[in-house]
Structure prediction request, 308 residues.
Amino acid sequence: MDLSTTIAGVRFPTCLMNASGALCVTKAELEALGQSRSGAIVTKSMTPAFRQGNPEPRYYSFPGGSINSMGLPNLGYPAYADIIPTLQTFGKPVIASIAGLSPPDFLEAARAITAVSPDLIEVNLSCPNIAGKPQIGYDVEASRALLLELKKIVTVPMGVKLPPYFDPVHYEITARMLLDVKVDFMTVINSVGNGLVVDPEEERVVIKPRYGFGGLGGAMIKPVALANVRAFWKLIGDSIPIIGTGGVVSGTDMFEHILCGAKAVQIGTALVDEGVGVFQRLEKELGELLQRKGYASLSDCRGRLQEL
Ligand code: DHB
Prediction:
């Protein structure tokens, strides 16, 4: 079964890849993604300088999903600029995720990373774990202004990683802004921000930073992710390709994202739980499911979710 896909003119050998943040901070982790069946190598969101991140424990996985407050631990963009040319020898797209604590941080990272020509740049508008910093993705005019500045600098296809939205008006104003700015792809969704997981036996929170509050991922967020993929696909169609992210644990979960309109799917919590072998398992599960249903390709079912 051909599971390849094309996003913003870039061909991906398979339509599944890691989500930014999951096993993609160090050179060794990024190279392991290169050697795996992941259809791309997505970097951790990078900031101008190295960051240790928040104190541990800062990631916790449980049967329904995960919670994290990593605090943007990353090597800093100069290190990723050095690594990216090596990553490009693995024969799959390299997606550089850029972030920042302020707009100038994003612009600085974008300038340096554009110079080494990753295949795509994913602008992270949705980091929920920095104390005192609201997610820029929840401010549509601030997002527009930042993206317009970035567009002047970035010469490779540039997309956005969005937080989940919960209100139809937010889908509409965000979709309009993304169409105005002409972003090349959108990754939907980042973790569901500022959840709280409680250990009732110990009577305490499960991660240390920020009083235990953190971004939720994994199986529990799938309906939120599917709603966001579907809502944006209905508003934007194929003019901005969508990478679906959130709650993918099985080939069936991938299929659901594709039915909602996703052209590719990213794996976060399941990758951290299972390691890079997850890609082979999911690829097999999706291939078998499509075959059983009689689909010859992704384009035969993509977006074709039926309504009652
Ligand atoms: C972190 C978490 C995110 O969801 C994100 O988009 C970027 C960074 C973090 O805590 O490291």
